[in-house]
UniProtKB/TrEMBL annotation:
Reaction(s) this enzyme catalyzes, per UniProt: L-threonylcarbamoyladenylate + adenosine(37) in tRNA = N(6)-L-threonylcarbamoyladenosine(37) in tRNA + AMP + H(+)
Transferase in keyword set: yes
Cofactor: how bound: Binds 1 Fe(2+) ion per subunit.
Domain Gcp-like residues, every copy: 23-306
Domain of life, per lineage: Bacteria
Subcellular localization(s) per the UniProt record: Cytoplasm
Main location (coarse class): cytoplasm
Name recorded for this polypeptide: tRNA N6-adenosine threonylcarbamoyltransferase
Length: 334
């Protein structure tokens, strides 16, 4: 099937046409980063308004780029949740209107299922598979015995890793979003500062990043209060080392303990160069195949929603036109 997918869960207004869950025909993303940067983070009301402003143009551009009309489509897919409710509603209502007007089935997609299926756009996922989703709102290890079957075996107990990146970045005066900034700055620094790693219980697959975050914040505040200089690049490098160590250890242990040949590393933070590098080395060592989507498919986009929509298409999971945006939509109960 040829599916037009729409994604508006946070601050990216995105649409894409994906065929068979694997082939990107067109892919458009309008990022609002420049708008939210001045506020130091995403302002929900502002995000919704910009989605409204950009949505029609983005959908039009997507079909033009694909050289298709609505008559060529088999379905409309949309991110149902999780995300900012006002932002989600713009995508959901657009998708409902398009489905109704063109008499097309409406496919509801979970945003995290989208991040995971970005992998299918670069390589075929073979089940059972393990996914490590690292993003602005999630840090989860998800085991999939079969397609569409999501078992969350571990997740963060406090901050998501992207959240920690953004907060640490803000503390050392880097602009929003902080992840890419820390990534860059860390390359100029040295891992000279010993920040903690939260291992939790020995057999747990959960994560915790608030201790690490606080430790960086305290370090910076103590130094500045005493009038001492701080080396931002060293802080970035040391913080990132802690994150990388924990993510790689957890992912490797999960991949070895569960029956899996592949590990999918995905979500906005999977754009991080140090995480990608370390994960590659480790997976090679333990003989697990690593799938990491390219940067543009790791951060929010609609092509990944189109890829995940293929699973819903096969399950004939057609949404009614009463579909609503669900800010805390669960992945497991689908
Ligand atoms: P979720 O997917 O959990 O709903 P989200 O959609 O807001 O959250 P994404 O867009 O998937 O999150 O990811 C955004 C996060 O990724 C931000 O926290 C950003 O700082 C982080 N990020 C982006 N690039 C990098 C990078 N190179 N290194 C580290 N973090 C990064
Ligand atoms: Mg985003
Ligand atoms: Fe996301």
């Amino acid at each position: 099937p040829t599916i037009l997918a729409i994604e508006t869960s946070c601050d990216e207004t995105a649409a894409a046409v994906v065929r068979g869950g694997k082939e990107i025909i067109s892919n458009q993303v309008a990022s609002q980063i420049a708008i939210h940067e001045q506020f130091g983070g995403v302002v929900p009301e502002v995000a919704s308004r910009h989605h409204v402003q950009n949505m029609t143009t983005i959908v039009k551009k997507t079909l033009e780029e694909a050289e298709l009309t609505y008559a060529d489509l088999d379905a409309i897919a949309v991110t149902e949740g999780p995300g900012l409710v006002g932002a989600l509603l713009v995508g959901v209502n657009t998708a409902k209107a398009l489905a109704y007007a063109n008499d097309l089935p409406l496919l509801p997609v979970h945003h995290i299922a989208g991040h995971i299926h970005a992998a299918n756009l670069v390589q075929t996922i073979e089940y059972p598979a393990m996914a490590l989703v690292v993003s602005g709102g999630h840090t989860s290890l998800i085991y999939m015995e079969d397609e569409g079957d999501y078992q969350i075996i571990g997740e963060t107990r406090d901050d998501a890793v992207g959240e920690a990146y953004d907060k640490v970045a803000r503390t050392i005066g880097l602009p929003y979003p902080g992840g890419p900034q820390i990534d860059k700055l860390a390359q100029e620094g040295e891992e000279t500062i010993e920040f903690p790693r939260s291992w939790l219980e020995e057999d747990s697959y959960d994560f915790s990043f608030s201790g690490l975050k606080s430790s960086v914040l305290n370090y910076v505040h103590n130094r500045t209060q005493r009038g001492e200089d701080i080396n931002k690049a060293d802080i970035a490098a040391s913080f990132q080392r802690s994150v990388v160590d924990v993510l790689v250890e957890r992912a490797a242990r999960a991949a070895m303990s569960y029956d899996t040949k592949q590990l999918i590393l995905t979500g906005g933070v999977a754009a991080n160069s140090a995480i990608r590098e370390a994960m590659e080395v480790k997976m090679k060592k333990i003989g697990v195949q690593l799938i990491v989507p390219p940067l543009s498919l790791c951060t929010d986009n609609a092509a990944m929603i189109g890829a995940a929509a293929h699973v819903e298409w096969k399950k004939k999971n057609i949404a009614a036109l009463t579909l609503n945006g669900v800010p805390n939509l669960s992945l497991q109960k689908r």
